[in-house]
Amino acid sequence: MTNDVGMSPSAGEHRMIVRTLLLFYWIGFSACGFAQDSATDATNTPVTVDSADTANNPSEYPKTLKLAGGIVTIHPPQIRSWEDFEIIEGLAVVEAVVEAQPERRFGVLAFSANAVPDLDARTVRIENIKITSLTEQGREVDENLRSMIAAALDKGVREIPLDLVLSHLSDEVLASSMPGIKSQPPTIVVAKAPSVIVLLQGEPVLAPVGDAGLTFAANTNWPLFNVESTGQWYLRINENWLTADDLEESWRWATQLPEALKNLPDEDNWRSTRIAAAAWEAAPNENPPVVFVYTEPAELILIDGEPKLVQIADTGLSYVENCESQLFQHNKRWYYLVSGRWFSNKSLDGKWQTVLKLPEEFAAIPEDHLKADVLASVPNTPAAKIAALDAQIPKKTEIPLDARMPETVTYAGEPNFQPIPDTSLRRAVNTSYEVIQVDDRYYLCYSGMWYVSNFPEGPWSVAGSVPTVIYQIPPSSPAYHTTYVKVYETSPVSVTYGYTSGYSSVYIVNGVPVYGTGWYYPPYYYYGGGYPIYYGYPYTYGSSSFYNPRTGAYGSVSRAYGPYGGYGYASGYNPRTGTYARAESSWDYDEWYGRGEAYNPRTGRYVGTERYYDADDGDWKTNTTFEGRRGEVNVQRHFDDDSGRTNISTGAGGQGTINRRKNDGVTTTTSEFRTADGRTISGSGRFEDGEGRTTLSGSQGGSGTIERSTDADGITREGSFSKDGKTLSTQTNRDGSGPRTTFETSEGARGVVTGSGLNRTAVAESASGDLYAARDGNVWRKSDDGWYKRNDGSWSKAEVPDRFSQGGDRSRDRQAGAGRSTTANRSNRSSLNRDFNARQRGMDRFRNFNRGSRSGGRRRR
What we know:
The structure is a single chain. It is globular, with a radius of gyration of 29 Å. It has seven helices and 61 strands. About 45% of the residues are buried. About 10% of the residues lie in helices and about 40% in strands. It is mainly beta and about 850 residues long. The longest helix has 18 residues, at about 10-25.
């Protein structure tokens, strides 16, 4: 049901209509017609003006702005250096239509600016732009044009896509390793039938549920219960229950549930389990899944039957199609990627070994292949270099010196500090906070900042400096991640802290990012007052952790192991607050259910989300709210086999509805969208077997059609739109990796839009084409048939030199190599082909941001 081919046409149509509306807006159309704010140059070439949209779309290029003296277009910048991730320098093509002048002018802008990364939005904020030089065919431009372009930069350039920056800087990233990170394989289980892996951090820590003799395991990733009177174990998988006399024995379907499970406390702590117990009627007819129970981290490779190998053309590699894990075969040997590490085995049933050198064929996986995500874990590939550079960018926070620690640090019993091996430090083990004792002082690392106190419980003050000895904590300690939080700047009133990806347990090994230190940290247990208190630690394996190039971070797969259940995680249990958190999802062949929840009875706060789909009834419901810099969008959907309705509303006042009706295999749709200022666009469609046509009509005269077709590769939608003699043509392809729309206008502008809703991104070419700046001050255009050079008002085909001399006095290279991200002397070795590849790769990564089906990584608190 998640495959768009099998989804109702109206759901897919909704995405296309929304994307079409956005396209109208991006390239100069209004919601129902062409933008009125347009102009033509002296050669009667229409110019699309982006002045209204620039502030709202700061990461989209090219940018076209209408100014008092004419029109300026700024093309995607070519980044040359980013010293200490603070000062950025680069080149960009600028083109201008100056009033009363007959020709469009093209120049090369060299600039520097303060650059602040936003790792969540995947952008770099640009401030204090300085024009180093502005040339036209190698000669400085006149002062009037310089002033107009300076005004355009000040008005329009606010952000650059982070991935575009990294792609330009990654060529000379050297393979590196952080010392002490381990890569020994965990226990790896391979199953070819429905299976469940239950992970316990140590022996079960049983916490009471009410007063009926029922306990639950607080230190596992599944809802696992024990009945004290019988010793019987019960494992919930969605609305079904498994039972066993002992954790190590075979599990079977429960034929009845104990009264304690049927009468769970009526509180939010047990909401989903209480619903599941009440809905349970009888054991399923099919065989139960195999249950694997481990007290240390382990990974499960689940294959749906025997492996089905699919070749990756021209590589000698094959991947296992019927497996969600990253499992490959090369020269009759298996390769498995998890947590950024590769393991190999001659037989799936044999002993797995760490891969010391990956076969070079893995680097040949095409960047647009279904398995291209693994390239970030293949040494020396562009994807790996970008990921390694990404991991070194600090996320900074400025905090006033008089700020208070927002939470109270508590301990289970009296504070218990134990030595950190190979250091003079001691670490608190009976608290969920990172508190480190340095002599007679206590340092707390919280939310990427350091606090200090004379007492283990506080009060806490902002630390203006951190003892050097703290940065000697080895990876064998659970506190190792705190060594990636540092003081970057101090003032009389504030401190600026920053942390890199190591704080989120992402480290660099052999030039690629890996998740976790590879060390196993035994959890801490404390029994007091008859209640167990459990403090677990993040572990490297057990969550199928994967690097997500769409977010630049690691995430964990929250999915079912087989058709019977899902992965969840219990963060711990503390009877002082009664807090626990759990996430779970599960599905079978015709039903899918997912829920995430957290409840704290101390504060009374509950957070939950829920989705449901039933293929037998054709019924599915979602309620989703997106928030972003453009405001809020709420989408409510409810569909069954015969009808459905989607309601869309935005915080700015826009509204939309899509209705569907199905009769005798033919589906008809109607839709209408209304902007906050009253403009409308309406549509109607007819579909049979997933194919058909939608017609659109705008209140200001615009019209269009969308043709939808399906085949084995996915869905294709072709659109044609017109207004006042101007046309827009689009083609959208959806193949399971997300939507991708290409567009072209009758004026020659073209580009690509990907993503949907608030996560959309766009990069385009102006009517002048895909332009690049050379060091010698010339402007080049990349076309399908090669490179063209701008010379004396026209374009002529030319051979691109392999190197461009730097020229001029560029003082920044005197400090090349001083910062982690500065690429020494890179400007001396720049080429247009490299810039072209960097732009394509960087914008592709930026387009894909937040578009994948897997969840993104999280930064540690």
